[in-house]
Design a protein that fits this description.
alpha+beta, Aminopeptidase, globular, 199 residues, 30% strand, 7 helices, single chain
């Protein structure tokens, strides 16, 4: 996808440092974006994102990371210029359908720019639309950047050995840095109509 086409199908998100992030819902055709972001993440960042060593993404992995229905699985992909900058996604717990697990992966060279904060806040309106009331985060206790992100969102963090768990009600998230209706409209455009659905 060339830069002009990407910009037509993305939403500009202002960052605190003056840069403009461009985001769009991840779809099945975005394997290249995911693969590029993964390739540019350090070994440590990959470990922190997947909570285990991951050297490469298989075709099954890429399918899992890009096939979204908007209700049980959803992700925002982000670019700065023509470069993949990161992804934030939620996956609804089958046995706890009002809660979703959230994961964030940011390419190393784009750390400390507020991208993760912005992406999680942009997940909020989509989650609220489909009936998700709470976000849960499993984070390695050594992953200080992610813990700092959770603190910036006022997420409650419980410490339990090597894994820290954060929880926050979706309604308590800070508002997204762009209009929520614009985010939802883009989701409808890329994924299709979604609404409140509790499995």
């Amino acid at each position: 996808m060339n830069t002009s086409e990407t910009q037509k199908r993305t939403i500009p998100v202002p960052l605190a440092n003056g840069e403009t992030l461009r985001i769009r819902p991840i779809a099945a055709s975005d394997g290249d974006l995911i693969a590029q972001a993964f390739a540019e993440m350090s070994e440590q960042s990959r470990y922190q994102r997947f909570l285990s060593p991951v050297d490469k993404l298989t075709s099954h992995d890429l399918k899992y990371l890009t096939e979204m229905d908007g209700s049980t699985r959803f992700a925002w992909g982000a670019r700065l210029g023509s470069r993949s900058a990161g992804v934030a996604r939620f996956v609804r717990f089958p046995d706890e359908p009002l809660t979703a697990d959230v994961a964030v992966g940011i390419v190393d060279q784009f750390h400390h720019r507020g991208i993760g904060n912005a992406l999680v806040r942009c997940l909020g309106p989509v989650a609220a639309l489909v009936g998700i009331e709470e976000f849960s985060f499993d984070v390695l206790s050594s992953n200080e950047p992610m813990l700092a992100l959770l603190r910036s969102l006022d997420v409650t963090i419980d410490h339990d050995g090597m894994i820290d768990r954060g929880r926050i009600r979706v309604e308590d998230l800070p508002p997204p840095p762009v209009d929520a209706d614009r985010l939802v409209a883009m989701v409808h455009e890329v994924i299709g109509p979604i609404g409140r659905r509790i499995p």
